[in-house]
Structure formats: C-alpha cells, structure tokens
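Pipeline run #58 for the internal structure catalog. This entry was flagged by the ingest filter as a single-chain record with no existing model, so it goes straight to prediction. Upstream metadata was stripped on purpose; only the residue string is passed forward. Reviewer on rotation: M.T. Logging verbosity set to normal.
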Amino acid sequence: MSRVALVTGSNKGIGYAIVKALCQKFDGIVYLTSRSEDLGKAAIIKLNKLGLQPEYHQLDVTNRDSVIALRDHIASKHGGLDIVINNAGYVNSVLFNSYKEEEKVIDINYRGVLTMQELIYPMVRNNGRILNVSSDCGHLSNIRNKYWIDRLSKKDLKISDINEFVNWYLDSKKNGCFNPDDLVDKGSIAAYRVSKVALCALTMIQQKELEFKNISVNSVHPGFVRTDMTMKLGFLSTDEAAKTPVYLVLEAPESLRGAYVWHDGTVLDWFDHTSNVYFTTKFARSWVLSSVIVNIKEYIFMWINYILEKVRLPITSKTL
C-alpha cells in the first residue's frame, strides 16, 4: 500500500514549495490541492515540467462538500493517508476590514482545520504526521487580554474554549466594541492573529486526541516568506520556508508532539505569553525599508513582474 501525503492550499506559495519538496523526498503519493481547479492544474503542469508527478484534487477547506469529496476520493483510491499539512491560509489587510472579511480569515485559517479534523483525520494511519502551518502571529504572546491568556493556557483546554475565543473576537467586531489593547501591535491584522492563535491551541488538543494512533501533530511558523500574501516581501523564499515543514513530517523525532516550531526548527514555549516573538508592523516596515534600499534594482524588477502577472503580461529582464 502506497503512503500518501496531502497539502492544502498548495497551488502557490509555501504550499506549492512543500509539495515540490515532498515529491523529491517522500516515498509515496503527494496530493496538491487548491480551491480553484484551474490554478491547481496549472501548478501540476509546472511541477510536471520539473519531472515531478504529484496528484491533484480540488479542495476548499471552507466548503464541507468539497472536503467530503476529497475524503471519499482518498478512501476509495488509497484507503487512508499518512501525512496532512494544513497550509491553506488567508490574511486580512492592516486597515478597513469588513466583518465578512474578518470572518473569512477565521473560516479558512481555523474553522477549515476543524472540518479537516472531523472528516480527514480519521483516515490518517497509525504513526502518521499532521502539521498545521501557523505564524509568529499564532504564538500566545500575541494576546494581551488576561482572561483569554489564562483560559487558552488551561491544561484541560477544549475545542469549545477555542471556539468561544474566536467568537468573542468576531462578536466584538460585529458589535463595534473590539479593544485593540486586547492584542499586541494595537490590534493590527487582528483576525489573522486570533485565527492563528486558535490554530496553535487546537494543535495541542489534536495531539491529545490522536495520541492513541501514535500520530504526531505540530504547528510551525514558516517565517516571513516572499509570497502573494506578503506582497512578495520577506526574508525567506518559498523553497527555504518549506524546509522545516518538510523536516517535521518526514524526519523529526516521534517525540516531537504538540509543539510550536519556529522556521529554523527551534521549538518554542507556546505558553510563554511574556515573550516578544510576535509579529509587529514596525518590524515589517523596517525590514522592508532596509531590504529595498539594499536590493533596490531587484525589488523594482520583482514588483513590475508582480503587477504585470496580475494582468497576465509577464516580462523578462531583457525587456527592461
């Protein structure tokens, strides 16, 4: 029976790089999935040109029927799977987000993983590995509200606690009573922080629930990566960012369980809410400014390409 790996949201960015690396290192079948079937199949063609042969299946983690269709396909064709990487993600803008936009972030980054847990996890075989792709925004230090720090730190934490946490945030936005001081950095990208904190807390619950099958469940901050989500800014390429996630599902010791792992492979204490490992917009601005100054020509070329890609007019350096 062939081993099977599944990566959600993998037609581009970190997910695509993870699929590429798994195709090169994993002795089994690798599934690339995407919400858009056209974009997913285009990604498959790109990998085929590199001599890699992943399988494809459409997947929208916010659509229950879509997850069921994937489950049924995996069950009938393979009987189960061995690796699940929950990579599908979405970030809200820094300013002027509607309630629907805030809810979309929660639905993709957190509730989508709950649906995966319900429908896909039962097919993960003994000794399998599950990885939740989180962020530095997912560390507990992103929260400043003492009630929620204490509640999310409980030894007997339950999914109902996490659901109440995300609902508390969404209700505060709907009712216009959100307090920016409840989060770090004046509440910037608040929905994203809440969704990723919820995901990391969920990771530890998932580990406890799957311990009987000897399955390892961890979360990872892949770093500040140059993707569409970061507007092509970051200190890591997608291939560099894929290294630690791939290590965690293929090579990490079985004893590494329920952990929050930094992009360099370091295991951090997720419960240390007094640490300063959280993301700040000040850090992003300073990094971007210094990076652009040092690499001005490269960034001009990159941004022109990025803009033209949106209108389907790719260029080469020879045309500049």
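catalog note: Residues 70 and 76 are 10 Å apart (CA to CA).
catalog note: The mean pLDDT is 89.
status: ready for reviewer M.T.
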